[in-house]
TrEMBL record:
PANTHER family: SENSOR HISTIDINE KINASE YKOH, SENSOR PROTEIN QSEC. Gene3D superfamilies: 1.10.287.130, Histidine kinase-like ATPase, C-terminal domain. It comes from Roseibium salinum. This is histidine kinase. InterPro entries: 2CSK_N (IPR013727), HAMP_dom (IPR003660), HATPase_C_sf (IPR036890), HATPase_dom (IPR003594), His_kinase_dom (IPR005467), HisK_dim/P_dom (IPR003661), HisK_dim/P_sf (IPR036097), Sig_transdc_His_kin-like_C (IPR004358). Keywords: Kinase, Membrane, Phosphoprotein, Transferase, Transmembrane, Transmembrane helix, Two-component regulatory system. CDD domains: HATPase, HisKA. One of its GO terms (molecular function) is kinase activity. It is found in: Membrane.
Amino acid sequence: MPDFARRLETTSLKARVALGMALLLVIGGVIVSIAAFAYGREAARSAYDRLLLGAANDIASAITVRDGRPAINLPVPAFELLEFAPDDRIGYRIIGPDGETLTGYDEIALPSGRRDFDEGFFDGSFFGEPARFAVVPRRFAERTLNGTVKVVVGQTLLARNAMAYEITRNALFVLAASGLAMALLAALVVRSVLRPLEKIAGGLSARDPHDLTPVDTAVPRETAVMIHALNGFMARLDRQMNSMRHLISDTAHQLRTPVAALRAQADLFSEETDLGRKEKIVERLQTRTGSLGRLLDQMLAQALVIHRGDSARRERVDLRDIALDLFEEGDHAVLYPDTDVMLEIGEVPVRVLADELSLKEALKNLLGNALRYGRSPVRVGASLEKGKAAIWVEDSGSGPGEEILAGIGARFNKGVLSRQTGSGLGLAIAHSVAVSFGGNLVLENTSENRFRAALVFEALAEKAS
């Protein structure tokens, strides 16, 4: 079954339409055949019953009374009516008032032996063949004869069945012609429907591999949904490629100076003979190496959050869990043992629609900036503030300079990676995460003369239990 489903999914649209049309015609053919045969049989029965009734009436009208007994002179026109069924056998029986057969075939029996069956039609057999019979009474109320004479005329069913089959065949011929016309029309429609797709495919094939501009092709409304999705995908891909290009460019720019400085210090160390100066060079090498490592970590984190901002699936995230996980990791206690870090989360869930890993990376950078450049104590928390969900870091310092704060938004509004070092790049990462998930990075001094860096998002409503 899975293999069949897989083959069905890869089948062309033309084949699917052809299969659907074939099933429709087969099912419709069966239904139409049954209905046409039923209609044809009823039409044939009605037509030939009238012929039987006419013949029986002609015979009944020709009966007279002679010497107190019915006299029968079979009229020729009565049997001429039945010539419309030349292949059928014809039988008749005339029954007197006392139930005896005056003339005709005694083998023709009334239904279930009922002698009181005076008028109408019934089905029976005539010498082993199925037949249809009509009964017409002729009533006499004379001095010498008082009673009813019954005229029974019947014929076999060959003509009736042939008429029913002919009507069915004609209906099937019409169905076949209609099905052929529908199949041709369906082929034209499918071809017309696929033409915009072929146009889109041709346009994409002729494009330059680096051309990720939106597809601007006039297509039907139903196909426009695919064009919109394709343009959205190309836009995300373009942002990803731009991010990678900027990362490579910024990495080359940022690493050139530190690597050159490390090379120069290494050259000085190899040429220096004084042990005291060598120790200072080693200290500078360690400082440069640590700074370079932090820079690389932040640039890789920047590339990660930009990538996940476009590709990661949004999920319901409780910001309290992000703050708690970062606090329990305890990296701050190892790297900055002299700085007090406190956790402040409440009992009320603080849920947003975002990516957990990106939020954690952003909060880690905010905490790193506070530990590196702020003053103890440092607080990490999550809270609901005026209908907004916020995850934040506070320290007792005054925050970064105005030039850094002004540069964060301007750099990212232009979609370019920050080339700043230190807190500027950490704040830039946090800003990128906030923008990716529809939030803001808010940097402010609180009423307690503390500096707060917060990621603020739209809070999700709690699900009813």
